[in-house]
Every structure is written in structure tokens, then in C-alpha cells.
Write a structure and sequence with these properties.
There is one protein chain. By secondary structure, the chain is of the alpha/beta class. It has two domains: about 230 residues, Rossmann fold (3-Layer(aba) Sandwich); about 210 residues, no CATH class. The strands form two sheets. An eight-stranded mixed sheet has the order 1-2-4-3-5-6-9-10, sandwiched between helices. Helix 2 packs across helix 14, helix 9 packs antiparallel against helix 10 and helix 11 packs across helix 12. It starts with a helix and ends with a helix. Pfam families: Peptidase_S28.
Length: about 525
């Protein structure tokens, strides 16, 4: 009976011209699966400028894993590593990460596509300001949509993996999760469903809210100590004598920095490490810092008990000792630039010197320059000190102008091209919807204590409060964790992460089934219309 129905459908297609994309998904494969291509890679000729074909193309690298693929018409699990070279993120093809785990559940293939200007996917031979003009949000989104619509995947000789014939599920984390959300908003109906973990969808210039989840989740003794330390630093740098300022800089090994805002920024930087902590970690620099400030022997401080009144001078001395012995040594030298060589060199923290080699490093391997371009141009999200009405663990000497000054030095005007032309956080949020995203078949997850949560749909700073979950846009807030914890299978040791992953995978599985149902309905309706016409 099944064979008869299949032959009947194919005959209808051949005789009556039934569109190829209305064939049901779960029919037997017409072309056998090529088992020699369980994994591999390819090169896609991508448009440099999607609005001007004359600019040409570049080779965009992609990788695939068909270990769990059910054959032609089965789901495609799509992933991009965003601001990283793909060769450093190939584990996302496997079931040690969420994309591979979803593929295993729904019998899908994982396809990983490298982001333009990262890794091997380079439109030009250097990263000059003029060459970077094609690195824009709309070009990036168009890349992935164009890939999905036109790629010939080498493991599917039948062509049944086109998004109109198979459900493409885009899974993203962090920046790539924002791309997931923005694609669903701006170019819908190409990908069938979306999973966005830790998506920072609302752009802000003075992103002081970044550190709020850190303050809520970190050991509270450490929080109050850091708040007191940063308050003291700001007080000295804003109103202290020249001798007091120099003495404080020297205490932290930063006497070679000329600018006070650079020094204050350097002293604030270690708290950013909070966002890197995963539930499966057995050691974290952030807790090492907290242990040092509190003069604790433990290397893994997770307590939240509030202790006695802060002894500022003791905490300041402990922080200075940790900063100069554990954090600072080798920090600049590790960059590899000769003008930043030396174990105790601190010049990489100087953002105002246009002569630094890093500011003129146009090599395509310089991922920092590419990401700086995107931050300076589109996303902003500069981590700054909190308003004076709030306690802060990040210096108030660091504001958006501090970052803009650096952007101007890194990207001078060239061939009438400059950074951030007519782009503001308001204009980006108007385009994308910001944290007021309402979509279809898109699932958001965020960690309760993820600093990036403050720019997400689950932000407590969102005017209407954290967005509520709906059937078409489920939102999961994972208790007690930081950034993108649900992307890694090793984090399933945490009960809340495990439950979030299971819920998310179950939702994606239902949406995959919905795709088959919708396609079957389309075929039935089309066939009925044909018979009625005859």
C-alpha cells in the first residue's frame, strides 16, 4: 500500500506538475544515503555584497556530520560559530553539544557554516577599513539565508534537503543566537524553527546592566568587597591627589598606564570572567579572585553567605596581590605583539596610543579586529559602570565614550568608508525589535545569572519585565547558571540545565513533526484541487 501511494504521488508530480517542494517529508529515500560521507566539509561560493552581484564572491567554508541523518528529507540542524574560526568549534557537529544532540533525537544532519571574515571564509586578503565595509548585519544574515536556499549538500544527492522540503533548525548560542533571532524576525520562512541560547538581542551603548546578574549570582561577600574596591578606585582617580593616584596605580602594577580610565578599566576587567563559568567546571578564575580577596584557602568558593562588614584596606590589599601575581603577568605578552612583550608589560591596556601594532594588524587571522568592527558598528553593548544610584563592580570612569575613542583609532576613515556611519543602538533595535522580539517557532533560553541576560528577552531591565513564554515562542530561564550552559552535554550534571535541554529538545522535535504535518496538508490540498478540477 505504501509503495502504491508513493508511486501515485510521483506520477501526479510527473504528469500534473505538482511542485517538488510539496512532497511529504517521510517518504522513503529516492536516492540511497552515501555512507562514505558521514562527515566532511565543503566550500560555498558566497556573495560578497548581496545588493550588488558585481562585487563578486568568496569561498565560505562549511562542515557537516551525517552520523544520525535519516536520509533525504530528514532535518538539517544548522549552526554557525559566529565570531570564531570554525576549525575551533567543530565539536558543535557532535553529540557532545546541543546541535549534535538534537540531530541524534530527530535523525538530522548537522551543518556548520563559518561566518564571513572569520577563519577561512575571507572575502579579501586583509582587514582594512575599506574591506570591512561588507561586514554588516544585513550581509551576515543574507549569507546564511542564501546558503540554506541554494547550497547543494554533498551528502544529499536527491536535493530533498532544501528548506522547502526538509525542516532546517537553526541553533545558536551567544552572538550566533542573536543572529538566530534576527533572522527569524527579518527574513522569516526559510528556517523552520529556531533555538537561541543566551541571545543578546537588545543593543545598548552604556551597557552597565551587564554586571547586574554577576552581582546577584556571585558570592555576596566577594560582591560587597569588589563594590567597595571599585568605589575606592573611582574616588581616588576622580578626586585624589596626584600622589594618591600614582600610589594606587603602582599598587596594582599599572604605573606605566598614562590614562586613569585605562587603569580603572584594567582593574574592572577580571569580573567579566563570571560569564565564562560553566556548571561542569572544576576551577574558575573568577572564584580564584574571590577567594584571594577574602583570603580564603578554598579554590572553589560558591557560598552566598554575607559575612562581616567589609574591611576595605584588607580587601584592597588582597585584590592587589592577586591582580599583580596571578592576573596581570603575561596578560599583554600573550598577544604576541613585540611592543607588548615582557612578563609585566601592561601596554595592551592602553587604548589611546594609535601606534600599537595591534591597531594596525590587518591580517585576516586577527579575529579581535573583526569583532571590534562589529561591536563598534552594530552591537555596541559596551560594559560600563553603573549609575551613581546603584552599587557597581565596574568603574564609572569607563563609559561609552571610552570605547568610541578606541573605535576611531582602530578604524580610521579610508576610501570614504568609516565605522558606525549613521548607526545607533536605537536604529538597530528599531530594525530588529530589540528585546521585544515576538516570533514563530523560536525558543529562547537564558541563564539566571548570565550577564548577557540583561540584553535578552528575559532581562529584568526590559520595560515590561522579562518576556513571558508562549507556545510559539517558549522562553526558558535556567536557574543558577551563566552563559549558554544548555549548549554543552557535560553540563547535564546540573539538574536545571538537564531539564532545560530536555524541554528544548522535546519542543524542537514537536516542531519537526509539525513540518511534516504541514507539508502533508499542503500535498493533500493540492491533490484535492487537482482531482476536483478533473
Amino acid at each position: 500500500m505504501l509503495c502504491y501511494l508513493l508511486i501515485h504521488i510521483l506520477c501526479l508530480q510527473a504528469v500534473l506538475g505538482v511542485p517538488y517542494d510539496v512532497l511529504p517529508l517521510r517518504i522513503p529515500a529516492l536516492v540511497p544515503k552515501d555512507t562514505s560521507l558521514l562527515s566532511g566539509r565543503g566550500a560555498f561560493q558566497q556573495l560578497i555584497d548581496h545588493t550588488n552581484l558585481d562585487v563578486g564572491t568568496f569561498s565560505q567554508s562549511y562542515w557537516f556530520n551525517t552520523t544520525y541523518w535519516g536520509g533525504p528529507g530528514s532535518p538539517i540542524i544548522f549552526y554557525t560559530p559566529g565570531q570564531h574560526a570554525a576549525t575551533d568549534r567543530l565539536h558543535y557537529l557532535t553529540d557532545t553539544t546541543l546541535p549534535g544532540l538534537v540531530a541524534k533525537e530527530v535523525r538530522g544532519a548537522v551543518v556548520l557554516v563559518e561566518h564571513r571574515y572569520f577563519g577561512e571564509s575571507q572575502p579579501f586578503s586583509n582587514l582594512s577599513t575599506a574591506n570591512l565595509q561588507y561586514l554588516t548585519l544585513d550581509q551576515v544574515l543574507a549569507d546564511f539565508v542564501h546558503f540554506a536556499r541554494t547550497v547543494d549538500l554533498p551528502f544529499d544527492l536527491s536535493g530533498q534537503s532544501h528548506p522547502s522540503r526538509a525542516p532546517w533548525i537553526w541553533i545558536g548560542n551567544s552572538y550566533s543566537a542573536a543572529l538566530v533571532a534576527w533572522t527569524e524576525k527579518l527574513i522569516p520562512n526559510v528556517f523552520w524553527a529556531y533555538y537561541a541560547s543566551g541571545a543578546m538581542v537588545n543593543c545598548m551603548q552604556d551597557f552597565w546592566q551587564f554586571n547586574y546578574p554577576t552581582q546577584q549570582g556571585m558570592p555576596q561577600d566577594c560582591r560587597y568587597s569588589l563594590e567597595a574596591i571599585i568605589s575606592h578606585v573611582d574616588s581616588v582617580f576622580l578626586s585624589g591627589s596626584p600622589e594618591q593616584k600614582h600610589r594606587l596605580k603602582t599598587r596594582f602594577g599599572l604605573q606605566d598606564l598614562d590614562r586613569l580610565d585605562d587603569t580603572a578599566s584594567a582593574l574592572s576587567r577580571p569580573v567579566i570572567a563570571w560569564t565564562l563559568i560553566q556548571p561542569s567546571d572544576t576551577h574558575a578564575q573568577f572564584f580564584e579572585m574571590c577567594d584571594a580577596i577574602g583570603n580564603l584557602n578554598s579554590s572553589w568558593s560558591r557560598g552566598h553567605k554575607v559575612g562581616s562588614e567589609i574591611n576595605l584596606q584588607k580587601a584592597l590589599g588582597n585584590y592587589a596581590n592577586w591582580f599583580t601575581t596571578s592576573y596581570l603577568p603575561g596578560l599583554c605578552e600573550s598577544s604576541g605583539y613585540s611592543d607588548w612583550a615582557g612578563r609585566n608589560n601592561v601596554q595592551c591596556l592602553d587604548t589611546a596610543n594609535p601606534s600599537w601594532q595591534a591597531f594596525h594588524d590587518l591580517a585576516v587571522q586577527n579575529e579581535d579586529r573583526v569583532w571590534d568592527w562589529m561591536i563598534c558598528n552594530f552591537f555596541l553593548l559596551w560594559q560600563t559602570g553603573a549609575p551613581v544610584s546603584r552599587p557597581t563592580i565596574f568603574s564609572r570612569l569607563v563609559d561609552s565614550m571610552y570605547y568610541k575613542r578606541r573605535c576611531k583609532l582602530i578604524f580610521p576613515e579610508e576610501e570614504n568608508v568609516t565605522y558606525a556611519a549613521r548607526v545607533t543602538d536605537d536604529s538597530i533595535n528599531t530594525l530588529t525589535g530589540g528585546w521585544n522580539h515576538t516570533g514563530k517557532r523560536i525558543l529562547f533560553t537564558n541563564g539566571e545569572f548570565d550577564p548577557w541576560r540583561s540584553a535578552s528577552v528575559s532581562s529584568v531591565f526590559r520595560p515590561d519585565g522579562p518576556m513571558q513564554s508562549t507556545s510559539q515562542q517558549p522562553i526558558i530561564l535556567i536557574k543558577g547558571v551563566q552563559h549558554q550552559a544548555d549548549m554543552y552535554v557535560r553540563n547535564r550534571i546540573n539538574k536545571d540545565v538537564r531539564e532545560a535541554m530536555d524541554t528544548g529538545i522535546a519542543q524542537i522535535s514537536r516542531w519537526v513533526l509539525d513540518f511534516h504535518v504541514e507539508k502533508s496538508k499542503t500535498l493533500t490540498q493540492y491533490t484535492s484541487q487537482v482531482y476536483c478540477a478533473h
